[in-house]
Amino acid sequence: TTPGSHNDCYASTCHRMFFANQQRGLPLQQCPDNDGHNVDTMDGLVLPVGVALAGGSPDEAASCAAVTRSSPQLNQYSAVLATMLQSVIRTGELPAIVSRTAAAVGLSANRLAASKSPMTA
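User: That's the sequence. What structure does it adopt?
Assistant: Structure tokens below.
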């Protein structure tokens, strides 16, 4: 961005990369990018949560994440999270649904507690 053009204290890497690509003249559909470090992070799940809570499909949640980020991992986890959140809201069975969701993606509570998250920088 242009120095002094805004008073924000922080702009996410994915947004800086997206708008840099737009500034270079890329079509908007080609502006999502990935630096291999800061884009595949937990904050990418914020907007897909909104889609899930509004009743959007898991694919719509993943598509929302892909608007500003090029991250297959984020797309996968967005869809999983959307499915899990909607199931918890529908049934109220948080522990059982979290366990089933973890098992569906090859994880267990013990492994989760001992491993590094694939969505952290």
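The CA atoms of residues 55 and 79 lie 12 Å apart.
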